[in-house]
Specification:
By secondary structure, the protein is mostly helical. Helix 6 crosses helix 7. About 5% of the residues have low confidence.
């Protein structure tokens, strides 16, 4: 099958899966803004709207299917990324980013593998902090310090630690760089990045990635404010 056997096919798989992951990040960011709203309006304990969102998703069949689909997208995206990187290195060696003419090579393009590794490590930490204590705990019938659906309390707990906040900040930076290059590069691979749209997609990529990351950062800032600062790890 050409999607898996050819270089172009693998790039198409990476582009499609990457676009789907950006859409998920957009949804995830918007969902997390409900927590920011709770903090802004000082929602009473037990009435947090973010907890209601977590309860609505929970371990319902649609959430489980979406989680399984998301896991598949992540695996496909990064497996093909490593394969393509290895092929490029084997074919071009140290000159794999050499270009002709005056077209510049973006810093993110040169460091997509390193950025990808940071993104994966950050994602594993995020899964440990939230998915393991929420969806997995609910599936396993277990309960940690808080109930699996107490998303508001879990966010407060995680971002009470300054070390975790710094790690998440590094992760957010890597995500931003990864998306700024990845979005417009995906459109180029899919044939939607002609001469007229090249600069437009680059601009859209920067704006879109910035909005997503600022949304996630607002959650961290809101947690720190709600906690009254850092309370320890």
């Amino acid at each position: 099958m050409w999607l898996t056997s050819s270089s172009i096919g693998r790039k198409v798989v990476m582009s499609v899966t990457g676009a789907c992951l950006v859409l998920f990040l957009t949804f995830h960011m918007l969902m997390n803004l409900v927590y920011v709203y709770d903090v802004m309006v000082s929602t009473a304990a037990g009435d947090h709207y973010y907890d209601k969102v977590c309860e609505f998703l929970g371990t319902n069949w649609y959430a489980l299917i979406a989680t399984a689909g998301l896991a598949l997208l992540v695996v496909l995206h990064f497996v093909f990324a490593f394969i393509l990187t290895a092929q490029n290195y084997k074919a071009r060696g140290k000159d794999r980013y050499a270009v002709s003419g005056k077209q510049p090579v973006h810093w993110a393009a040169k460091n997509m593998l390193v950025l990808g590794i940071i993104v994966i490590l950050g994602m594993l930490l995020h899964l440990k902090d939230f998915w393991y204590n929420m969806m997995f705990a609910e599936l396993a019938g277990a309960e940690g310090q808080y109930a699996p659906t107490a998303g508001f309390d879990w966010i407060n707990l995680v971002f009470a630690c300054p070390v975790i906040v710094v790690i998440y900040a590094v992760w957010f930076c890597a995500l931003w760089y990864h998306m700024t290059h990845g979005i417009w590069s995906s459109m180029q691979t899919l044939g939607l990045n002609g001469k007229v749209w090249l600069n437009r997609w680059i601009c859209i990529s920067y704006v879109w990635a910035t909005v997503i990351i600022l949304g996630f950062c607002s959650v961290v800032v809101a947690a720190i404010i709600n906690n009254g600062g850092f309370t320890g790890c």
